[in-house]
From TrEMBL:
The lineage of its organism: Bacteria, Pseudomonadati, Pseudomonadota, Alphaproteobacteria, Hyphomicrobiales. It comes from Xanthobacter dioxanivorans. This is Uncharacterized protein.
Amino acid sequence: MRILKPRYWYPYLRMSRALVGYPIYAPPHLKCESDLTDDEAQENFDYFMRVKDERLEMFLEWMWRNFRIRLSFNPESIDKFDRWAKFYNGSIVADGQRMIWRSYNDYDPAWTGRFIGCNLMLDAGIYLGEYLICKRPTIRWGMDKGYFSKIDIDEIEEYDEDSVEYNIDQNVERYPSGNYNKVLLLFQNGRSDNPLPLQMYNANNQAPYLFLDGALDGLAGQGSYNSARACIAQALFFHDLAPDSTGFTPDFSTRPIE
């Protein structure tokens, strides 16, 4: 465990006490979903769908019981969440970034002991994801089936690998992406026949994206905090983007989140 600066002692001690007995997230297969078979990953996804509503309610009640913060699905609640998360950033799991990512993505080390905060980060991600679903009911939870692919090298002597996309009619090999089979949010806006992944709203990486910079390259709590409001604004922007839209990407810190 990293040694905290004195200014982080209070948030770390308070968070440590609040996390005692925090419910453990326990999917059937405690291994990175991208390393599982499709059937095993589907079992993990089914588990997530069964427990997400219960974990959301538990997280909301936990926030009120321990920090007297009442969260709901309105912008004011996101601002409250941001203030809370910024203050406790780096103390939810006080360890180095590499170890936290290893635990969070691979369930190794297990989400117990000093890594129990991984359960909290997942539940925070569920809350933010459900916020988006509340604002845009066309959004839904799904599984990431993104992958890299190329035409069989024996069939074509020269090709631009970066320009080749998977085609079921071609002889191809599939190369799963790093998030393959993980839980994420999907939406459909007419840009494709298939649902599109919502940028940065993968249940397995949304909360770490927000929190883990606090443990970057040094003492826990030393890094920055990525605003949940800005992340939600970005997700809504890409959801609402018309198929033929062009132009500059806006400043998400000032965009509405309704």
